[in-house]
């Protein structure tokens, strides 16, 4: 018997995700629910393909009104765009031309857009935290205007050096946005207080093993474990280990779990504060209960390329993963089943969720009551559009008729 | 009764002699039927030809290849993102002829018997290729060295039990790295009536690299060869992809004009006088060798790094859901 390949996908709940790729494109993927579940598909593409604009890092300010996206590009510039329609809101040209000639060496690795305002100046400002591979971190705030030219960014950003040597590969800001962690190649995980810009904690590398072999440190991804606690960190290393650090306990890892054979490339935490999702260089995605270190299970779905980014939906029980196989995959957390896979043609660098998608759809459809139904299912959408079209046609014909009648009437007048 | 017997499956008969007799009979019947069909078809074709009609269209046999499963990653010719991606990828400097490809060939630590002779064959196939002894160097060190010496690719031939069994192609300076399984290797000296290639730059034929991954592998292979072939050399190197196996062949070709006899002109005296013997151009091939088959195992992003490397594509058993599903 030949095995069939049709995947019975239960379909995604309605969601909206944005992906960033190596050609600098931002793609919007939407899934709409229906009776038998909707399939996710690409609805919009922002930007033109240009390899110098390769997206290195992206961050989303996920809020009800005016959500923003921060994008760090390969050429060194940072853009802030609207997450609804992709309009450019602010543009920070690369600083490296002025300071250093080597822009390529000191690319921005991580970027974070702050949710709350550092200075209570106005609601239109946003604060950006960036970190480059050489360890130059800076925090600056931007005053957003109506057009990108109106945006004012302060001339004196807060700057500090995270590390003297080595490369920063990962950084993360905790939920309350008071602390940030950094880690990288030959840089141990360290935690910084963002208000005072001081290092408050550094990890210590694990001891040599029984053979006296010391593995050089290389952290490829890290995250804070839970929302309300900045003291627990999870980090993935190049030597396929996932380590749990506790700041309050010790400097060495509390626990370390091995996962398969290739480097851990992405780590994401769950909202429950104990499950961690890890993705590695050969495209294996798994969830781990970090309290015990037990592998809960792998996400199986023909994922063939390295996973670069994992995002957890804040509300729905789904995660999204993307990476070098240029697919965006959406998974169910409970059953670890593939809900949907979208082919996006380029190597993807990161993915973010827009959790206020549903509200926006309703809010956007104030004048037209029909478009609430539009989210239901593709067939219905088709019907809706048909309806619209037909109604338009009707109106058009009516207009023509009315014109004709007018003409007639005019003719009669004559 | 007879009907029942016919419907009875031979496998349901318990007596072996009886069973084999019934089976043989059935088989014979099938064969006869098949032959009858073929004959009928032939006759129809012939009749159509005589009447000057269009012969009935030939039926296309259903193969695994042409019933391939639909794949969304197959490249489309009107895809602007594909071309933008191609322009930006690692091979574009070689393929745009901005630099001349220079290839370093090396082996695994142990190399004997068929390995060295395969390398001599490869050196004659790929222009501007240089063989370096492996010694005890790490591959990462070799990559560093080759980058410094302006090589554009490295080929590593892995030998197991005195038989080459894997091929690693590393594009320099920043990847990707393709790992192939190598099988069915026939060296030049083992090919009957083989030709000896000249030192002209060969033409390159890449067949059936359809998907995104296939395109990338195809471009990787393309970047090994110079992009300006000497057509005077009449040498052609073929990489033919069929069902994810890449077949390598190396030929010399020649166009010959051959006088072809025309059977109709014989009977008619008028034509015989003025008609010169019809000249027909035919191409003849001579294989130069070597001959081998490659199968992609993995494609790694960046240069060789097994520990911290990221894979763009790795074959996993869960991907083999059907035999009609191909990745290249």
Automatic annotation (TrEMBL), chain A:
Record field: compositional bias (Basic residues): 385-407
Ranges for region Disordered: 364-414
Superkingdom of source: Eukaryota
Record lineage: Eukaryota, Viridiplantae, Streptophyta, Embryophyta, Tracheophyta
Keywords, in A-Z order: Repeat, WD repeat
Native species: Sesamum indicum (Oriental sesame)
CDD domains reported in the protein's UniProt record: WDR74
Family matches, as InterPro entries: WD40/YVTN_repeat-like_dom_sf, WD40_repeat_CS, WD40_repeat_dom_sf, WD40_rpt, WDR74/Nsa1
Gene name for this UniProt entry: LOC105166306
UniProt keyword Lyase, yes or no: no
Keyword Hydrolase: no
Gene Ontology process terms (BP): ribosomal large subunit biogenesis
One term under GO cellular component: preribosome, large subunit precursor
Spans of repeat WD: 300-341
Name of the protein: WD repeat-containing protein 74
From TrEMBL, chain B:
Basic and acidic residues composition bias: residue spans: 40-50, 258-277
Gene Ontology biological-process entries: maturation of 5.8S rRNA; maturation of LSU-rRNA
Domain Brix: 101-305
Biased composition (Basic residues): 21-39
Cellular component, GO annotation: nucleolus; preribosome, large subunit precursor
PANTHER family in the record: RIBOSOME PRODUCTION FACTOR 1 (PTHR22734:SF3), U3 SMALL NUCLEOLAR RIBONUCLEOPROTEIN PROTEIN IMP4 (PTHR22734)
Descriptive protein name: Ribosome production factor 1
Organism: Sesamum indicum (Oriental sesame)
Source taxonomy: Eukaryota, Viridiplantae, Streptophyta, Embryophyta, Tracheophyta
């Amino acid at each position: 018997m030949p095995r069939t390949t049709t995947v019975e996908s239960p379909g995604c709940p309605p969601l909206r995700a944005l992906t960033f790729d190596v050609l600098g494109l931002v793609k919007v993927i939407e899934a709409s629910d229906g009776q038998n579940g909707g399939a996710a598909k690409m609805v919009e593409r922002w930007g033109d393909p240009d390899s110098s604009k390769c997206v290195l890092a992206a961050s989303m300010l996920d809020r009800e009104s005016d959500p923003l996206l921060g994008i760090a590009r390969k050429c060194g510039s940072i853009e802030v765009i609207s997450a609804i329609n992709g309009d450019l809101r602010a543009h920070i040209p690369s600083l490296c031309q002025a300071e250093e000639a080597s822009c390529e060496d000191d690319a921005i690795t991580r970027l974070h857009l702050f949710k709350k305002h550092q200075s209570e100046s106005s609601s239109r400002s946003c604060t950006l935290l960036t970190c480059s591979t050489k360890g130059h971190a800076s925090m600056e705030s931007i005053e957003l205007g109506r057009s990108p030219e109106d945006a004012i960014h302060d001339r004196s950003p807060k700057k500090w050096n995270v590390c003297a040597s080595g490369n920063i590969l990962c950084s993360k800001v905790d939920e309350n946005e008071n602390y940030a962690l950094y880690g990288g190649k030959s840089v141990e995980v360290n935690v910084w207080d963002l208000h005072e810009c001081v290092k408050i904690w550094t990890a210590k590398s694990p001891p040599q093993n029984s053979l006296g072999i010391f593995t050089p440190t290389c952290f490829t991804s890290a995250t804070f474990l839970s929302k309300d606690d900045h003291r627990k960190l999870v980090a993935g290393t190049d030597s396929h280990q996932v380590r749990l650090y506790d700041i309050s306990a010790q400097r060495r890892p509390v626990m370390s779990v091995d996962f398969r054979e290739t480097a851990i490339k992405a780590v994401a935490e769950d909202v429950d504060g104990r499950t961690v999702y890890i993705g590695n260089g050969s495209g294996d995605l798994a969830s781990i209960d970090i309290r015990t270190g037990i592998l809960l299970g792998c996400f199986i779905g023909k994922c063939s390329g390295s996973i670069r980014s994992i995002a957890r939906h804040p509300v729905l029980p789904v995660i999204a993963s993307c990476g070098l196989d240029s697919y965006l995959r959406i998974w169910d957390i409970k059953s670890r089943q593939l809900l949907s896979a979208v082919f996006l043609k380029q190597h993807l660098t990161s993915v973010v969720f827009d959790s206020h998608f549903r509200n926006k759809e309703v809010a956007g459809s104030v004048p037209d009551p029909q478009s609430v139904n539009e989210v239901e299912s593709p067939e219905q959408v088709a019907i809706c559009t048909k309806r619209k079209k037909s109604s338009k046609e009707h109106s058009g014909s009516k207009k023509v008729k009315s014109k004709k009648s007018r003409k007639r009437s005019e003719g009669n007048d004559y | 009764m007879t009907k029942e017997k016919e419907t009875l499956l031979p496998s349901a008969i318990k007596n072996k002699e009886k069973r084999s007799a019934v089976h043989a009979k059935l088989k014979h019947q099938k064969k006869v039927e098949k032959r009858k069909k073929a004959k009928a078809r032939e006759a129809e074709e012939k009749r159509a030809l005589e009447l000057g009609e269009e012969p009935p269209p030939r039926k296309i046999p259903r193969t695994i290849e042409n019933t391939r499963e639909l794949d969304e990653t197959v490249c489309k010719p009107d895809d602007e993102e594909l071309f933008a991606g191609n322009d930006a990828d690692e091979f574009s400097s070689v393929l745009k002829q901005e630099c001349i490809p220079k290839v370093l060939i090396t082996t695994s630590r142990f190399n004997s018997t068929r390995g060295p002779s395969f390398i001599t064959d490869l050196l004659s196939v790929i222009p501007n290729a240089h063989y370096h002894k492996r010694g005890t160097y790490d591959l990462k060190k070799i990559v560093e060295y080759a980058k410094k010496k302006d090589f554009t690719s490295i080929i590593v031939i892995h030998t197991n039990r005195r038989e080459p069994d894997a091929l690693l192609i590393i594009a320099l300076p920043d990847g990707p790295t393709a790992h192939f399984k190598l099988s069915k290797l026939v060296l030049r000296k083992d090919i009957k009536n083989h030709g000896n290639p000249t030192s002209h730059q060969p033409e390159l034929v890449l067949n059936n690299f359809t998907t995104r991954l296939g395109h990338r592998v195809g471009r990787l292979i393309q970047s090994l060869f110079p992009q300006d072939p000497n057509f005077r050399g009449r040498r052609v190197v073929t990489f033919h992809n069929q069902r994810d196996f890449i077949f390598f062949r190396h030929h010399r070709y020649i166009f010959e004009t051959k006088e072809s006899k025309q059977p109709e002109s014989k009977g008619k005296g008028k034509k015989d006088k003025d008609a010169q013997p019809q000249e027909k151009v035919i191409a003849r091939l001579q294989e130069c060798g070597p001959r081998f088959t490659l199968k992609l195992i993995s494609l790694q992003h960046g240069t060789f790094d097994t520990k911290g490397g990221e894979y763009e594509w790795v074959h996993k058993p869960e991907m083999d859901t059907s035999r009609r599903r191909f990745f290249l």
